[in-house]
Give the backbone structure.
Amino acid sequence: MISLEEIKYPIREEMKKFELKFHDAMKSSVPLLDRVTHYIVKRKGKQMRPMFVFFSAGICGKITDATFRGASLIELLHTATLVHDDVVDDSNLRRGFFSINALWKNKIAVLVGDYLLSKGLLLSIDNGDFNLLQIVSSAVREMSEGELLQIEKARKLDISEEIYYEIIRQKTASLIASCCACGAASSGTSYENERKMHSFGEKIGMAFQIKDDLFDFESSEKTGKPSGIDIKESKMTLPLIYALNHASSQQKRHIVNIIKNHSEEKSKVSEVVNFIIESGGIAYALSKMKEFQQSAIHILDEFEDSPYKNSLIQLVRFTTERNN
């Protein structure tokens, strides 16, 4: 598979410039806050969200100063939500590094998240980027609603496929959709193109989350067996939903009972994994992921050929065919 560095090539200079601008956007006169934000910048991930912003601007016309602000806005608000998520989940690790709450405790983590949120808002307001702020604020609202909808529905372990799509559309796809819409809006393109790119991002986000679901059924390097982490955490993923929807009433009760009451037992988790595989849940989820992937690429057919378009297609494939 093509590497992320190769995909990034048409925007390599912009990404270098963005890193400097993003670092500046997080600076504070409070030493403690500066230490925490420096730690956040140092442990950055693949930076796929800014890449979606820049490629979307490029495919729609041109990369502008507003594109850099849009990418920074998304990273600031998204980082704020991750910091708060780690507090809510009582998580000590994020991407293999200690989380902010693990190193500086919950109170500081919450305040840092609030600070990042305010920096994003001010970055947009100070530059009059109200359209970008509206796009990203809508995504943050949807992410919160998606989380709450999942919590509400997960208790019963009885989520329909339609509800599952709505949850992942809000929780995951809304953010990637906002990246693409922000990029398009920052280029000065038409509202129609902005909506097309929003739809493109949403479909990629759906495919991305289904790919995440499928990771739970891939063999780990240590054991050679599927991890079943989502099953242990009673998460309703697409392969499980499909399998339960095609099971007999008795079989369904048995599997739900295992997930609710025996998810710590390895043999029981293996039984659920085997049930899902044999029911065709993996194959079904894979086919739905490919549907979303192809629908997204089809939207790009409406734009002129360019290095940005080629890389965006490669980025679509990377997000849905990645190994981690």
